[in-house]
Amino acid sequence: MKAIQTILCFLLFLSSSYGQYDEKHTQILMREIGNKILWSVGDSTSRVLPITKAENRTYVISFERPINIISDSLYKIVTHELKKIKVSNFLTEIKDCVSEDVILAFIHSSEIDSVYPCQGRSVPKNCYKIEVTINEPIYTIAEPSNKTITKKFQEFIGIDTKDSSVSDSLTLTSQLSSSLPNNNIDVSNAGTSIWLYFSLALGFLSILYFSIVKHKSKNKEELVGEKTEVDLISIGQYQFDPSKSKLIFNGEFIVLTEKESKLLTLLFNGLNQPQKRDDLIGEIWGEEGLLVISRNIDVLVSKLRKKLQDDPQLKITNVHGVGYKLEL
Questions:
Q1: Residue 250 CB: number of other CB atoms within 10 A?
Q2: Which residue from 5, 83, 86, 137 could staple onto 169, CB 3.0 to 4.6 Å apart?
C-alpha cells in the first residue's frame, strides 16, 4: 500500500509540470472567445484587450470599445471554445466595467444542473467585461507545484495525511521530485505518447489503490449499515437518503444531483399538495444569486421523473398555473 501511494504521488507531481502549457493555451482560447463575440455583433475593427486572470481560475475578457452582447451567441461561443480543451464545468458572467454589477450569467456543468441564459436576450451597448470561471476537477488547468498534493486529489484517492505511512510517502515523493533537473517540460515538443503512457500508468495505479481501499472498508460499511437505514425515508417503493443524495430501489442505488435531492425533499414535505413554481425555484437556486428561468425547474423535474419511473404509483404532476406536486 505504501509503495502504491508513493508512486501515485510522484506521478501527480510530474503531471503538475504540464500546467504552464495549459495556462498559455487557455489564455489564447479566451482571446479567441473575445474575438468571436466581437464578430457575432458585426464588429471587425475593435480589439480584445489583454486577458487577465483573477483568483479561482477566473479569466477576464475586456474590450477596447463598448459592445452589445446577445445571450444566445455568448453561450454558444463560450461553450464551443471551451470544449476544445475538454472543459465542461464553468461559470460565465457579463459585468459592467464600472459598477461591477452582474448583467447576465450562466452555468454549464456536467455534474450539477446547468443554468442557461434567457434565449434571445440582448444586452444594451455599454462597456462590459466577461469573466469565465473554470470549475473543472483536478488538474485540467494546473499550476506547477512540487511542494504539496492538492486537497482535492487527497480526497479523490482517499489519502489520509495523518497516517504515518502516507506522510512518509509524501516526504519521499517530494525529495524525488525536487531532485529532477527541470520540472518545466515543454509539452509542445514532448509528443502525445508521453501523455498516453503517463495516463495509463496513473490510471492503473489509481484502480489498484481503490480496489485495496474498497476491500478494507467493506466490512466496516456492513457493520454500520443497520444504523444508516434509520436515516432513510420511504417514498413509495423507494428509500430516499437525503444526506447522501441517493435513492434505493430493489437494492440498487440511484444517484441524485444536489438539486434533484432538494426538489424531491421539497415535494415530499408537501406530499399530494401543489408546490408553487416560484417557491421551488427560490428554495433550490435562491442562494446562488444567478439568473434562473422557468425552464430550469421544468428540466429538473423531468430528470427527477425519470429516476422515479420504476414506481407507477409515484408521480410528479404538473398543476396548471401553480407548479408541481408529488402524488402517492
A1: 7
A2: 5
Cα–Cα distance, 127 to 44 (Å, whole number):
17
Classify 221 as helix, strand or coil: helix
pLDDT tens figures, 193-236: 555 666 677 777 777 777 776 666 665 555 445 444 457 888 88
CA distance 311 to 96: 49
Cβ within 8 Å of residue 268, ≥6 positions away: 233, 235, 240, 326
Q: How far apart are CA 220 and CA 104, in angstroms?
A: 48
Write out pLDDT tens, residues 169-199. 445 444 544 444 444 444 334 444 555 666 6
Q: What is the pTM of this model?
A: 0.39
CB 297 within 8 A of CB 280: yes
Q: Count of residues for the chain?
A: 328
Which helix (H) or strand (E) segment is 189 a member of? helix 187-190
